[in-house]
Design brief:
2 helices, 21% strand
């Protein structure tokens, strides 16, 4: 369980320091941002230039806020 908390904190830090209001492309293990863009295609293209051909895409809002889903 402790390892899971560390990974979450690391992921939260990664996203918290990222640009907002854009698409982010992450590497396979989601430890680095390898591209970003105004569209998913732009983020993927930048990721490919970084050597990651199949990135994980994520929309980054202007501001991250805690949410509860039911």
């Amino acid at each position: 369980m402790e390892q899971m908390v560390m990974a979450t904190n690391s992921f939260s830090t990664l996203l918290g320091n990222a640009a907002g209001d854009c698409w982010l492309a992450l590497n396979d293990d989601e430890t680095a941002i390898v591209g970003r863009g105004g569209t998913p295609a732009e983020a993927v293209e930048e990721a490919k230039r970084s050597g990651v051909n199949d990135p994980v895409l994520l929309w980054a809002p202007k501001k991250w806020i805690p949410s509860v889903f039911r």
